[in-house]
């Protein structure tokens, strides 16, 4: 079975990302791949892991994690084959909390697929573009189809502190269905490239010289 995590990328109190993630999870539950038990979907909320600003003494590529919060986060991410990142746009980019969470790990991200659901005044487009660049460095293959939810038409908000009601139109629903299918297919295709759980740096040994 292909395991897909819907990653909530905002940790701000009053964030609307949790509602967007629930919409993704509910829609995924109706997807043919999930109905047929070919794939499963689970929400992973970065806010629940209490990750401080990166505090590991060694670079993530060594895979030598020293802190309990890092080990817990690594075990969670390692268990999935692909991801759907739910991200708002903050000042032309995605939230620092998600960047920090990505930077904690390396091998656990490698050779997996991902899709992006952005939301905001401009649909989170610029946040998604920046996230694609970061994920490329961790060898995550981001599918082309993207979902962009507008705060004007897809999330009904009555005041600035209202969590809002996520109610995207048919076009957004279709884009999400297409994206989920791509994530499942790419996750399956990349499976032979994934290294065994716990193998640092894609199976390499950083203590040995690299052959010329």
Automatic annotation (TrEMBL):
Limits of the NADPH-dependent FMN reductase-like domain: 3-153
Gene3D superfamilies per the UniProt record, alphabetical: 3.40.50.360
Pfam family, one: FMN_red
Entry protein name: FMN reductase
Species: Streptosporangium pseudovulgare
